[in-house]
Structure formats: structure tokens, C-alpha cells
Model the fold of this input.
Amino acid sequence: MKEIRYIWAINEAMKEEMERDESVVLIGEDVGIPGGSFGASRGLYDRFGSDRVFDTPISEAGIMGLAAGAAACGLRPIVEIMFMDFMTVCMDGIVNQIAKMRYMFGSQYTVPIVIRTPAGGGLNAGPQHSQCLEAWFAHIPGLKVVMPGTPYDVKGLLKSAIRDDNPVIVVENKALHALKGPIPEEEYLIPIGKADVKKEGTDVTVVATSKMVHESLKAADELAQEGINIEVIDLLSISPWDKKTVFESVAKTHHLVIAHEAIKNFGIGAEISAAVTEEIMDELDAPIIRVGAPFTPIPFSLEKAYLPNAKDVSAAVKKTLERSL
Amino acid sequence: MITPNSKKLVEYYEKMLRIRRVEEKLMELFSNGEIPGFIHVCIGQEATPVAVCSHLKESDYISSTHRGHGHALAKGVDLKFFMAEVFGRKNGFCRGRSGSMHLACRELGVLGANGIVGGGIPIATGVAFASKYKKTGQVTVCFFGEGASDQGTFHESLNIASLKRLPIVYVCENNGWAEFTPQNIHMPIKSVADRAAAYNMLGVMVSNDFFKIYEAAGNAIKRARSGNGPTLLEVKCHRWHGHFVGDAQKYRTKEDIGAAKKDDCIRKFENRLLKDNVLTKKEIKEIEQRILNEIEEAVEFARKSPFPDKSELMEGVYV
Done:
């Protein structure tokens, strides 16, 4: 094992896959000599050259379409969209073109594209550089969405995403870019669609994503002092999501909290909550509680008040326990 | 001026006439209620797809628009399976999922018509990017209208293509109407080709004349294939009918429609062939009859083809 930062795990994943497969190319703004806005592609331009590391104009719509065409004709592009907020600029490319090309054309084309995009608050970047928009894309058939929150998970999932023949959106969390964690020296992959139980427990299941996994683990420590033993499931994949792992845990704890940094309203917590009540209502001893951001843009100065944290998870856990039937 | 030989001229004439007769048939079938959805016909614009695609190899690519029947037929798609797709049948190129508006045929490099105006421009650019990267020698032709040249994707794509000297030709069929709006309302310039200057790209404008389009497209495709980068080729053509079949064109004067019909690219081509003794009137009638028979056969084939089964609904969302 070695200790590396989250951002370097991304770099290693791309470097290894580009070495393994010549059809993998990196496309994005500032990804060339500058090495990416957050440094994810440092060294790749020198190693692979300008044909494979395409430092593009600031043209999100253009580069998303470019990736679609290149993928349909045999390349495996990794597109870096510098902030997830900028995904809105290329929604046609993602939603109307990339997601539908295979189905709409009767499976004539495959479009193996990875879209890497840093999301999330914590950097005081304000309303247009801090959003978590994973639910938008999880709503679109044809796309896969993953949201790793540790160096180990981001490397393994990004490598799987690059090898996947479907378009995959890899939602990074920029507040985690500097996070250090252990990863194996040897190659490994993490399957898309599989959740990871980060901490086993018996009293309440907490399904969390990305940074909220870390907040939930903090909450687990606090709650343990009060004798409450929660299970923390890192969902890792948003679409498809690992229903089996979540359902098995709920069948054990009979209580469910869902925690994500995205706005609570219409977020992925609503989907998970609805699926649990539709399919295994009998297993629940109490209402499901969701933790998410409030229904407001992220302000520059009140970010701490805005972002959900460990305290919110603890409160949600207690709330569901208090309301046990 | 480069002129194709007589045999080729007859072939191109037949292709243009075939597109027009197919479009006329589709208008009839749509109005009868046999084809659901939307149909956009390219009557009046047939010279461009045929003149441009006559320079392409089977392995070259084209991207197309919602008004894309002519492009696909000019690239050589089989009329029976084309018709089956437009009828939404299981044996269409796209298993009945695309219909008229998203028709694609991978085998012949028909990347797909696109329901989003300007949506196909960056995709075609990406295909050219892949061809250059893989050094395959393939050329991509990207068809679109003057309305699409107002989209950001047009600007972004041409900028990238010129920057990377991609093997692509952007063919703007300027029929003067962006859906229901005339060019002077949405564009402060007369010629889309002028926009090429902003990308340090060659911009060429030609009239709705087969021979002029043929020559300009030949030069542009040669430039692209030899690694000398993209060209923006604008053809000033005419849309005889509405934006879609059923559009009564109340926004357009009779004089404007009359003038469009007067500059008929097929009639002009036909007159030239008659004058040069390439074809006789009798031979033209024979060609016409052959086309009509072929269309009837294709329509019958489509009518008899099965619809996709309900069980196929969820197939192919993912690999």
C-alpha cells in the first residue's frame, strides 16, 4: 500500500489507462501544459503529447460534441469539465446526444466516454462553482454516474469508467482533492454499480455519497459515544445504484438515513427513499430521514451554514430512532 | 471547370430525381397518416447532397440534419430499409427508433440526422478528430442550415476544426429560412461563408447549381483529405415547402415560393443534359419510371415490415 492524495489517484488512473490503451484521449480546458485546473493531468501532456492530451478552447458544448463523435468512431475520450456547474453549458451534448446515441440509432454506435467533473462546496467558490448536480444526470437513461469520495475509490472507479463501453460521469469532490488515503501498489478496479460498506453497524443505516461519507463516519464516532451504532454505506455509484446492499442493510437495521451534499429537494435521496418504501416498507421501523443542502443557491459567505455536515447526520439518526414505532 | 463524364452525370441526375420523388412520396404518405411524427423534406435542395457525396468514399462520414433524407440517400443508403425506418419498423437502420429525424446508417458512414439544430456540428468535428488521430484518411462532411450557423456549437466547432486542421468540410445549405424565420431577421450578414474568416478558414459560396457545388465540394474534400484542413462551403439554395410537412407557410409570400421553384436545381441539370445530348427525353421518362417503381417497392416493403416488439423497449439503453 501507498498513501496518495485523491487528485493523484485520478492522475494515476488516467496515466495507467492511457498507457494501456492508445484509444484513450484526454480532452478539456487547461488539461495540457498547465496540467488541469486542479492538477489532475499534471505530466500527461509531456508523456502522451498534444494529440492525446487536447488542451481545448473554452468551449464546453463543442468539446462534448467532439467527444461524442470521437467515441462513436473508436476513441475512448476522457472529458474534463472543470466545474460541475459548467456541465449546464454542454447539456445538449450529454443529454440529447451522448446518452441517446446508442439507443436512438438502434445500437449501431457505442459511445465510451468518461466525463470527469469536480463538484461540491467548501472552497467558497460561490453559487456557480460549487453545485452537486448528480441527480440531473442520474435521471437520464444511457448515462452512468459515479461519485467516489476516497483516493482508493476514485482510482478504481475511474479506471472502470474508462474501460466501460457506456458514457460514465465521474463526479469528483474538489474539497477532497487534497485528501490522502491508502491505495495498493498493484492494479485494481472497482466495479460500477457496487456500494461499499465503510462501517458496519446495527442500529441505523446511513447511505451517503462523496464528502458526506466522511461526515457520516465522523457522526458514527460521535454517536458511538452515545451507544448508537450506525452502518455507513458509501453508495459510490449513483446510477445504477446498489439496491441489494442498501436493502440488505435496511433489513438489518430497520432505520434509514440518506445523506448527500446536493440539495435535498428532488435529490437522489428521494429516489432511494421511494425505492425502499415501495419495495421493502415492511422492514422499516421509522420514517426515512434525508440529509441534504437547503433549497437555495450556495452563497459565497454563508457556505458553512449551507453545507450539510456530521452534526446533521447525527441529528437525522437520532430523529429516525426517536420516531421508531 | 471540372465536369464529370456522361455516365456519371446520368447517375447524379437519377440520384437527385430519386430524392425528389422520395420526398414527394413521403409528403403523400405523411398526409395520409401512414407515417407518424414529423417529416421535413428537402425538395428544392437536392443538388447539394448529391454533388457533395459524389466525391466521398463509402468509408467517409456525413452528419446530417432534421432535413436529412437527401443526405442519407445521396450517401447511398438502401431505399427499402430507409423507408422501413421512416415507417418506424423493426428492420429499419435504427430498429425503428429514429424515424425520419435521427436516421443513421453506420455501415455507410451516415452518422445520423439530428433533432437538435446545430447538434450534429461538434459530433462531426469529433469524428474528424478521430480520423485524424487514427490516420485513417477518412473525410467527414457536416451538413447543416444557415439557422444552425447561429448556434454556439457552430462557432465552437469551426474554431476547433481550424485549430487542429481537421479533415472536415462544413456544408451550409442556406435555403433562406431558419424554420419560419427569414435570414435577414436572424443574421446581420448575407453570406454564412463570410463567417469562415473568423476561424482563419477558407469560406466558399456557390449558387444552387449542381456543377458549381460539385466543383467547390471536390476542392474542399480534396483539401481535407490531403491534410490541409477544413472548408466552410455555403450553397444558396431554396426550400420549396414548409419547415415540416403540413406547415402552410403563412409567413412566406407567394412570390418568394414562386422564385424558389423557378430556380430548380433538377430542372437546370436536366436541361443541361438534354442540351449536351447526354440524355434524351425518352431516357428521362424511363429513369423516372424506374425511380417510381423502386419507390413503390420500398413503400410496400416498409408497409409489410413488422413493428418492433414491446419486449425491445428497454434493449440497448446500455451496452
Remarks:
- Residues 129 and 290 of chain A are 24 Å apart (CA to CA).
